[in-house]
User: Fold 26S proteasome regulatory subunit RPN2 from Aspergillus thermomutatus.
Amino acid sequence: MVGLASAAGLVGFLSEPDPELRVFALKTLDSQIDLLWTEVVDAVPQIEALYEDESFPERELAALVAAKVYYHLQEYIESMVFALGAGKLFKLENGGEFEETIIAKCVDTFISLSAAQRPAAGDPSANLNTSFPTSGEGATSTSASLTSPITPFSQSTLPSKSLLSRQEVPGLDAAHPGGEDVTVKHDETSLVLKRGVQGQLQAVIERLFEQCFVQKRYRQVIGIAIEAKNLDVLRRTIIRASEDENKQHGESRRSEELMEYVLDICMGIVQERAFRNEILKLILELLNEIPAPDYFSIAKCVVFLNEHSMASVILRQLVEKGDARSLAVAYQISFDLYDNSTQEFLKKVREEIAELVPEAQPADINKTESQEEPKESDPLLQDQSSSEQSRSLGSNDPQAKLSDEARTAFKNILDILDGIKSIQLNLEFLYRNNKADIAILNKVRDSLEARNSIFHTAVTLSNAFMHAGTTHDKFFRDNLEWLGKAVNWSKFTATAALGVIHRGNLSQGQKLLQPYLPREHIAGVGGSGSVYSQGGSLYAFGLIYANHGGMAVDMIRDHFKKATEEVVQHGGALGLGVAGMATGDEGIYEDLRNVLYTDSALNGEAVGLAMGLVMLGTGNMRALEDMIQYAHDTQHEKIVRGLAMGMALIMYGRQENADELINGLLGDPDPTLRYGGIMTIALAYCGTGSNKAVRRLLHVAVSDVNDDVRRVAVLSLGFILFRKYQSVPRMVELLSESYNPHVRYGAAMALGISCAGTGLDEAIDLLEPMLKDSTDFVRQGALIALAMVLVQQNEAMNPRVSSLRKAMMKMIGDRHEDAMAKFGCAVALGIIDAGGRNCTISLQTQTGNLNMPGIVGAAVFIQYWYWFPLTHFLSLSFTPTAVIGVDQKLEVPFFKFHSNTRPSLFDYPPEQQVKAEEAPEKVKTAVLSTTAQAKRRAQRREKQQRRESMDVDQTPTTPKVSDQLPEKMETDEGAEKGEEEAKEAEKGAGEGPKKKVEREKVGYELENMSRVLPAQLKYLTFPDPRYEPVKRPTGGVVVVLDKNPEEPRETIEMKASKETKQPAATAESLQDRLQAAIGAAALQTPQRDAGRMPLGADPTAAAGAAAAAGVLTAVDEDEEGGEEAPVPEEFEYESDGFEE
Assistant:
C-alpha cells in the first residue's frame, strides 16, 4: 500500500457511527502507524473507548493500535497492557522492535507478579539475646534502612538489577511486588491487576515458553522461572526437556547438561539461601525420578542441603546393586563427599552406614576406645578391614545377611568417609613428586640473620610451606646450628612447622611428635623441656590431623586440660581448633570456654579462635552470646580479637542468617569488634559474589576511622569474589593507589586471595608496582599476594614468573631492605613452591563447592599481621594438583593417560641457579686492547728470534707505551670484531631454545599419580582400554573401572606410609653431636623403639631427627650460659612472666 500523507481522514472515520468505517480506519492505521502515530496521538481516547466497548466487533484491533501508539510515546507499561488486550493479534513471532519490547515488559511483569505471590521464604535466624552497647546503625530498624546512608546489613538501598539479590521486606503489601523496589515495579503490576489482564499475560508467557520448547531453548525458560521464583515452571521445563529427548531417542546428555546448568545457576546466582534450598530439593526429586539418575549431581545437592540421611541411602543402594560400576560410583561419591562436607556431616553418614556393619562401628567411629597406640602406625586400609571382618565372623546380628562383598564395600566406604584413603593418597603423591628447590631455602637462610626472631620465623615458615605435606624435614636436621638459635615463640613456630611438613601423616603423627609433646604424665622422665616446643607440638599435632579429628582430638584435649603453662594451653587450643574443625563438639567448646574465663591474654586469643573453629558454620547462638558477652567484659585486646574472629568462623556460610550479628558488630565502638564484623561478612558470604556484601565492604573501606578495619574490609573482597576473580582487579584498582598504606595492603591481599593460582595478568599488573611501594608492609603484602597468584605457574604459562622470582631472590639478599619486606619475601618463596611445587591454593574444591578448610585457612592466615604462628594456617588452603586413579579394590593401579599439550606447557619450573657464596670478588686488572696487540707483536718477535738462533733464549721485553700508540686503530677494529662475535653468539643462543620449542611434540603420556594442573584437566584423555574413569576427571582421586579384573595388574606401592620416621635415637649414639649442637640439656630426648625401625632405615636421618628434637625441646629462657645466641632485647616478645 502506498504510504498516506496524512491520517486526518482516518482519524475522522473513528467518529463515524458505521462500525465498518471504524474497522477500516483501524486496519489502515495499524499498517501505517509507524509513519502516522504523531497525528493519531490525539485520537487515543477514542481508540481506547472502542476497545472498552464490548459491542464493537474489533476490540482487539483497537487495543493493538493503542499499544503501538503508546509504544511510540515510550509509555511501555500502557503499551504492554493494551498489547495484552490485543490477544492473538499480537504476534510474538514477528520479531520487530515493538514485539521484542512488549515481550520484555511482559517477562518483567510476569517475574514481578510471580515473585510477589511467593511468600517470604526462609527460616528466620534466631535472635541474639545479647544487646550490643551501641547500635548506631539501627540493627533492627527497617525504616532506617531506607533513609540512613549507613544502612543495616540486612537491607539494601541500591537494589541490584536482578531480583535474585533483592531482599524481602516484611510488612509490605502483596499488591506491591518486587519487595523494597516498589517505585520501579508498582506501576506496571498495579496496572495489570487493575485492567484484569493477568490471564492474557499468562497466555503470552505460555506462548513464549512453548516457542522456546519447540526451538530447544530450555535454558531461557529456566532463567525466567528462577528469576520469577516459580518452581512449577522450572519443574515443567526439566520434564519437558527429558520427554522431548526420549521422543527423539537421543542420548541423555542434553538433560544432564540442563541439570548441571540449573545447579550452576542455583549455586552461582541465586543469593537467597532458602529459595536455593527449595530449588535443590526440586532437582533432587527430579533426579531420583529418572530411570538412570546422575548420582554425582544428586550427591552435590545432598551436600548443599546437608541431607546426610539421603547420602547414606544413595551409597547403600549403589552397594546393594552389586555390579562393579555401581560399586565404583559409590566409592567415587564417597571421595567427593569427603572433599566437600564437614566433619559433622561425615560423622552422621558414617554412623548410619555403620549400622549396616555394626562390628565396624567401634573401629571406624570411636577409634580411640578400640585401638591401642601401636595401631596408629598401621597404614593399610585392607589390613584394618580384614582384621575387623575376622573379628565379626560369628556375629548373630540381623544385618548378617549382607554378602561378604557388600560388607567389605561398606567398610571401605567408612574408611573413605573417614578421610583415611584420601589423606594417604595425597600424602603419597606429595612424597613421591617432591620437587622443592633446597638451594632457594639455603639462600633464604643465609640471607637472613637467625639471631633476629622475625627472620628465624620467616625461614621456618618458608621451609614449612615449601615442604608442606611431603614429610621432607631434612632441612631442620641438616641445620641444627641454625635451629638452635630459635628461642621462645620462634621455637614454638619451628615445632609447629613439623605439623605442616607432615600434614596427613596419620599413621606416624604421634610417634613423630613424641619427643616434643608434654611429658609430665610419662613415668620415669625428668624435666618437661621447653614449654614453647610443647605448645608448638600440640599445634603441630592438630595440623597433621587437620579437619580429620579422630584420636588426635582426644589426645590434644587431654594435654590441653592437664596443661598449666599458658604457652602449652595456647598451642593446645590451636591444635584442638584445627583438628576438631566444624565438629560442633559441645564438650570441646566447654573446655575451651573454661580456659577463656581465666582471662589470660596469652592463651585467650587462641582459645577464642579455637571456639570458632570447633563451632565452624554451625551458627550456634548460645556460643555467640557467650563470646559477645565476654568480649565486652574483658579488658584484653588479644582476647577480644580472638573472640571476634571466632564469631566470624561460627557464621561461616550462613549468609543472611548472619546479618543480625554483622549489624551488631559493625555498630560497636570497639574497632576490634568491628574488625570481627567485617570478617563475619567475608566468611558468611564467601564465594557468593553478593552485591550487598560488596557494597558494605566498600563503604567501610572508605569510611571507617580505624586503619585495621579499613584494611580488612578491602581484603575481604577477595573472599566474596573468588569465584568471579576476573572482576577483582578492576574493583580494587583505585584502592591499590590509595593514600592509606593499609588500604593498599588490603587491595594486594584481596588480589592474592581471589586470584590464587590463576596467574591472572591483570592482578600481576597491579601487584608488580607495589613491590616498590614506600611502605614496608605494603611490599610485604604484594610479595605474598604475587606468590599466591603465581603458585604453580611456569614461564610457558606466564612469562613474568622468572623475572619475579629473580626479583624476590634479589630482595631477600638486599641488606638495605626492611625486615618486614624480607619476611614477606621469605614467606612468598615458600608459597610459590608450595608442597614441593605440587600444590595450588584453592578456595573451592575440584567439583566447585566451597573448600571449607581452604577458606578457613586463608582467613586465619591473614591474622599473621598480629601473630606470626597463625601463618601456618595457610597450609590448609594447599590443594594437591594430581590425578590419582584407584580401582574397585581401592588400590592404585599402574597405567598411563594422555595429555594433549606440549610437555613444557605445564611442566615444573626449572631449578634456580643460586650462588652459594656471593662474596665480593677481586676486581680484575683492566687490560687494554693495545696491550693485547703489543703482546702479540712480542710473541712474533720471539718466534723470529728463535728461528735465527735456536740455542739462545732471550727474555721478551715489555713494550713501551710509545710502541702501542700507532696501533690504536687496529685495537678499535679488534674490539668491534669482538662485539660482532658476541652479538652472533647471543643470537644463536636465543634461537636455540626457540627452535627447540617449535620442534616440541604435542601430546605426551603421564603415569597414574602424576601432577596435573587444573588448567590441564581439559586436555586429558584415558586411552588405556582396561581402565575407564567413572566420571569426568576433575582432579584429585578418580575411581577407575577395571574392565579386566581377573587379569594380573601392576600396582603402585605406598612408600610414604611405609617409611618410618625416626624422631629420636639412643643417646649413646648421638652424644657427641648433641653436645656440639645444643649442650647437655638436649640429652633428655626419649629412646626410640628399636623394633619399629624397618630394614634399610637411614640411621643418619634418625640421628638428625633426634638432634633436631633435642634442639627444640631444650629449655632456653633461664639459661645464662647456654651456647645459643641470645635474642636481642627488642625482639623478645611475649616472654615476660613465663620463666620456669
Notes: The chain is about 55% helix and 5% strand. Strands lie at 839-841, 878-880, 882-886, 896-899, 1004-1007, 1010-1011, 1020-1021, 1027-1029, 1036-1042.
